[in-house]
Design brief:
Layout: H1 2-7, H2 19-28, H3 39-58
Length: 66
């Protein structure tokens, strides 16, 4: 807990996490609250990523793992 509060350390993100999501997570972890996205911004970005993933899947390009 100390390292998170005082040193700003964060857990490693999984390597399979899409880069856009990783970037969003890192922005949410910004030390300065003014640099963090609003919840409305997070929602817009997640919805956009979901639409893009669904479009790729519909086009047959998505890796579904199944």
């Amino acid at each position: 807990m100390y390292s998170v509060i005082y040193a700003g350390s964060r857990p490693d993100l999984p390597p399979w996490l899409p880069p856009a999501y990783a970037a969003l997570v890192r922005r949410c972890w910004a030390a300065d609250p003014a640099d963090r996205p609003s919840m409305a911004d997070v929602l817009v970005e997640v919805q956009a990523q979901l639409r893009a993933a669904l479009a790729e899947r519909a086009a047959g390009r998505g890796g579904g793992g199944g």
